[in-house]
Write a structure and sequence with these properties.
mainly alpha; elongated; 4 helices
């Protein structure tokens, strides 16, 4: 039971930053026409906030990978659905440039390297 909850927390740490990434892109690209008219201090704060949001997401993604690593390796919790979620999220994280690309590569390499360990039946 605890392993299922921890795996869910790890997956949410990998999913939620993607929304923050989309929000930071919307901020940066949505304001690109307006940013020239802003005072320099306000423009720097907006850009700095968007980049901080981006990096916080990468940090949460790394934490999510560590939690999933403890669940998958330490507790040997390897249901088939978790394999597919880790694979899909790894591919999505590749586009979270630059720090998220490392998170995506780590997740993909780990998932594909251990694909034989994932079984169709759940172990608790």
């Amino acid at each position: 039971m605890i392993t299922k909850v921890a795996a869910s927390i790890g997956l949410s740490f990998l999913v939620f930053p993607l929304f923050g990434f989309a929000l930071s892109l919307l901020i940066l690209f949505g304001l690109k026409d307006v940013i020239d008219a802003m005072p320099d201090t306000v423009a720097k704060r907006v850009i700095s906030g968007a980049l901080n949001l981006h990096q916080l997401g990468a940090l949460l993604g790394g934490l999510g990978i560590m939690i999933l690593g403890f669940c998958v390796d330490g507790a040997e919790y390897r249901p088939k659905w978790l394999f597919w979620w880790m694979l899909i999220l790894g591919m999505i994280w590749l586009f979270y440039f630059p720090a998220g690309t490392m998170v995506g590569l780590a997740l993909l390499i780990y998932t594909l390297g251990n694909r034989k360990k994932f079984r169709a039946t759940q172990t608790v």
